[in-house]
């Protein structure tokens, strides 16, 4: 793939980069990326560390779990988990890290509804975050031993002599080779044997004496239940362990193609060209499937910044909600983090509860009557300085302290709103609609109405 | 603790913003003449052998030492088969001759993947070449995007056409726009101008949603429930379906799903709870329709993407299998057993082998109930099964 020349990276390109590789941002934030130039802007997004602006995350799951154990009216650790990730998305200074964690959460989709442990879900989420930029195999090895995944796909029920095929099948169908990746029912059955004895330790949340175990779930290998016999898998034969199976599955040529196409669909376009795929396949091979190298190549490519690939992807609910908050530069309080989680859920994306093991299909499937209506009702609140919040009975709604931009004239206000929400002053029909609506009145009331119109425009649904 | 309870207790009450919605018809469709089909999808692969139980078959008990339904608990239908005890409420329909059970349903070259198999049921194409759904094709044949509606989060493949995505709604009550009328007016004006690409997709979807809100809210305002529904998602969806049917503003095909049937472990408890919800919800729905005076116009068809293996696994569960059973309920259904029960001595890789093609059931519903040519929708002729009076 051709690299974008450094001179061509200005504000509009930085805005595009942040829409796709992050959750957008304020004009100031976008400008700071533009000022860095292409190479450093991308490096800044790829850099991760623990001091990412979320050190003061107020959602302490352990504390919340104990509180609820003693008082059933308290929110508990599951709600804490939801708020915890929302807080990270809204506060992080390393947005690509959260965007990738979301990508992997959709890829290694796991539902808390079955896992029944916010601690296991949080552990998995941290694994996705920590390993999400590294070598793909490292990530799949870790996920295969992840307690939430083990519970979700019944690996813990998979024992010598009576294999449970759930994980072995999804490992190939959804996590590595892809459904048409060239494996057989026999590969499923044989590899299931290699994951026998893989289980995890947790505790009963109803028993306080189990708390330590419940709060810290961990992988356990039960040697007695492991089938150490010979297995034939994807054309190879040996006394394979589960680790061997993961290694062989990841090394299969279908895997690189499947993962690279999915990354491209997520970050660039609904379709990938042969040239782009070949170019990324080369990087995959030379780096042993290192995700950060793939991302670097994508975000510095001409194709990523091509006009045909701008404002063409339908925002996921997470994108839609979090980018609205980040554009406003607003820092939500904990009650609002819950509220934003629920807003996202209403728009069709329940974090930690994807619809099934396949995750979210994305694209046009985000758009239904229900979800559009929920989007409009969300931004209706935003334009009135209201954000959803969950508060205990009788408590007041938290205040909302962001300011919508009121210029000196209607034209200035329209420009400012356009830059704030669409990264550019509105043009043509959209601009005319705003002017007609304002009818010359540059008041707070018309500002709110115009905000609603911009946020309600079809363009605002796109990244 | 049950999964459902866990979720209920862990979610705080949400103020506003869980907004559902859907589409209603703007005009009378050419199909159906008042006949309505309700499809209930049991997601996850319902274990057909523990639903319609071959209780006189020794092979069944031999393969399932822990999870077989004891003979004394089976609700007897014939000398060979009977229903799971949790389906007791459905016995009323059986006794009245309004419950049809189709045995050994599947398709050639079965696929044990949830997604692949579900896609085959949705597209009605075992060769997996079709990319649109069988109900979506009905909508395209009549050019009527309002002829079918799903109740649930996202539109299943069954309701997707080549150019149309049929609507999905989660509840009627919250299907309303919360903004000032002036802003709505201005938004309408803005949405009058053409755009291109995905922006145009969204412009059309938004406009369509607005017009649907109007017609639906007008239509359903008079409904009073004619039965007490259980407090379950499936029941809530069926109640909303009854509400649309009563108002006669709704589609000719309704689709809804009940998840959780992927019982790899702890099956006896989980499946019993699911089937109990299923039968109680259907019973309430049919009683409601009687009160609304629409029961004669409605037929229910239920399916799952596959059955499960004959032999139980080590976790008191069963793994993905192949052929299973379907059910159909309605005043116009001719009750009884259809299709042949699979031979449990002649398995395919541990699974019962199909005796009836699921497309025969679709064809029967299309030709015999909706009055839509099944050949047009399914691409070939399939022998109808005589379960309609």
Written overview of the protein:
- The complex is a heterodimer of chains A (463) and B (389).
- Chain A is built from 23 helices and four strands.
- With 463 residues, chain A is mostly helical.
- Among the domains of chain A are: 97-269, no CATH class; 410-461, no CATH class.
- In chain A, the strands form two sheets. In chain A, strands 1-2 form a two-stranded antiparallel ribbon. Chain A has a two-stranded antiparallel sheet with strand order 3-4.
- The longest helix of chain A is centred in the N-terminal third of the chain and has 20 residues, at 27-46.
- The radius of gyration of chain A is 24 Å and the shape is globular.
- Chain B has 389 residues and is an alpha/beta fold.
- Chain B has one domain: Alkaline Phosphatase, subunit A (3-Layer(aba) Sandwich).
- Chain B has helices at residues 3-10, 58-63, 91-95, 114-123, 134-142, 181-190, 197-220, 233-247, 267-292, 358-370, 374-378; strands at residues 36-42, 52-53, 75-76, 82-83, 99-106, 148-151, 168-169, 253-258, 298-304, 324-329, 336-338, 356-357.
- In chain B, strands 1, 5, 6, 7, 8, 9, 10, 11 and 12 form a nine-stranded mixed sheet that branches.
- In chain B, a hairpin with a 5-residue loop joins strand 3 and strand 4.
- In chain B, helix 8 (233-247) packs parallel to helix 9.
- Chain B is globular.
- Chains A and B meet through helix 4, helix 10, helix 19, helix 20 and helix 22 of A and helix 1, helix 4, strand 7, helix 6 and helix 7 of B.
List keywords for this structure.
heterodimer; A: 463 residues; mainly alpha; two-stranded antiparallel sheet; 3% strand; B: 389 residues; alpha/beta; Alkaline Phosphatase, subunit A; nine-stranded mixed sheet; three-stranded antiparallel sheet; 11 helices; 34% helix; 13% strand; globular
